[in-house]
Amino acid sequence: MEQRSLVILGISGSLRKQSSNTRLLSFVGGMMPAGMEFRMYQGLADLPHFSPDLDGDEGQLHGAVREWREELRAANAIVICTPEYARGVPGSLKNALDWVVSSSEFMNMPTAVISASPHPDGGAAVLQSLTLTLKMMSAVIPDEASLAVPFVSKMIGPDGNVTDTNTLSSLLNLVQALSQAIKGH
Ligand SMILES: Cc1cc2nc3c(=O)[nH]c(=O)nc-3n(C[C@H](O)[C@H](O)[C@H](O)COP(=O)(O)O)c2cc1C
After folding, report:
1. CB of 16 shorter than 6 A to ligand 1
2. What residues does the NADPH-dependent FMN reductase-like domain cover (predicted)?
3. Which terminal residue of the chain, N or C, has fewer Cβ atoms less than 10 Å from its own Cβ?
């Protein structure tokens, strides 16, 4: 019998067309081993502003929220790659996460988190803040699946490939740690 691929959902925290985080995420998607299908979540900008008043019966939910939850439920693991905005999580990404606190899609979900920034600390503050939020939602984040990428503009070539050997090796470790977490799940 044919085995179904495992689904890895990529979520970029940047809505910018030329986003370095989205490009880095696509590159990571291309590193997934055989048997893993990488999909990119495209609906971040379509989600309404979260309000507990709107978060009730599934049948009454905004269509974009239903689709967001369905894409998460169809995933075996998640990779989030995000910029740091004013030392925190970009509002659109935090909004998306707030929509799934009550519905618990991140519960026990193997999750990798990457922050990428042109600055030397690679967005260490957003990585910390995002990790706190995801752990509050009981996501499983292996140590090696958490990575801050500094000087990101120099790390990605015009073809979208990462050439820096240290970053490449950290990304390989991240993909391996995520694969292990899926097996242990
Ligand atoms: C509103 C705003 C706030 C920012 N705040 C930070 C910050 O706190 N730390 C940081 O490292 N970079 C910060 N940056 C710079 C971003 O890291 C940089 O623009 C990055 O390229 C954005 O990611 P993207 O290319 O994926 O869109 C900020 C950028 C914007 C637009």
Report:
1. yes
2. 8-151
3. N
